[in-house]
Each structure stands twice: as C-alpha cells, then as structure tokens.
Amino acid sequence: MAEQELEMITDTFYRIVDMCYKKCIPPKYIDGELNKGESVCIDRCVAKYFEVNMKIGEALQKKGQQTGVGGSVTGFGA
What we know:
single chain; 2 helices; 71% helix
C-alpha cells in the first residue's frame, strides 16, 4: 500500500514538473537561473494544479456520496 502511494505521489510530481516546465520555461535558455517571470509562472502553475486537483476530488467525493459509493477521495494525486 505504501509503495502504491509513493508511486502515485511520484507520478503526480512528474506530471506537475512536465506540465509547468512546458508552460513556463522557454525552449531556448537565456540564463542558467529562473527569471522572475518564470518563477511566478511556475508558482502559479503548481498552485493551480493543486487547486484543480482538490476541486475534482471534492466533486468526485460528492458524486460518490450521491450514488451511495463509500470511501473518501484525497486531493493529492486523485
């Protein structure tokens, strides 16, 4: 069970990295460090990912309760 959780967390991490990297980092590097705009973009991208993930988890949990399916849905990696 712990191994599955670790796998799920790792998968979520890599999805966030991939998605936010493609969105926020230009293909041609200018500097070796992130500039302010890239940093802000990454921060917002990660925050938005978790916010959407929580909303989806809540909606699925609510739908499950309406249909009588038990169990809880966590926001992380759901």
